[in-house]
Amino acid sequence: MKAQAQPAGMVLSEADVRRLLDDSTPQARIDITNKLALAYGNAKMNKNEAVIAEQIFRLLMRDLEVRVRASLAQNIKESTTIPKDIVMALARDVEEVSLPVLQSSQVLDDNDLVELIQSTKEISRHLAISMRKEISGEVSETLLRGGNDKVAMSLINNDGAHISDAGLDNIIKTFSGDETMMGAVSKRPQLPVGAVEKLINVVSSSLAEELKKKYKSSSMPAQSGAIQQSNTIQLEVDKVKETETLSMASASMSQEEIEKLISQLIAYDRLSPSIILRSLCQGNFNFFETSLARLANIPVSNARTLINDRGELGFRGVYNKSGLPEAMFPAVKLLNRVVHELRDEGETVGSAQFANRIVERILHYSEEDPVENLSYIIALVRRVAE
Question: Torsion angle of alpha carbons 282, 283, 286, 291, nearest 10°?
Answer without folding.
Answer: 50
